[in-house]
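hey m, so remember when u said the tokens were messed up on ur end? i reran from scratch. heres the input so u can diff it against urs
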Amino acid sequence: MKKEIEKFISKNKETIENFNKFIEENRKDIQTIIVSVDFFFYFSEMDDFEDKFDFHGKYKKIRIIGDTFVPPSTVRFLLKSTPKFQFNVPCVCGIYKDEPHP
């Protein structure tokens, strides 16, 4: 695998530099990095990768996950500034927050 990661790094040197620069410039807004499962293995072998567990880990201290629905060469970002929708759902007991709990 070492030979493969070295080849990957050499073929993507400029892209990796731009990617790392984007991360540093947007660190406070990046919640998660999402990559393909295959691509996850390349990240998991890089120097700034830690806490690997299945298809989860951290790259430069930011959570990264492998997702089977992401195209192989694509990196997606889940940003904290992305619009969010909060639904009113019941707790585990089946009762909503605005209802009295027995």
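this time it looks ok to me. DSSP finds three helices and five strands in the chain. if urs says something different then somethings off w ur setup not the seq
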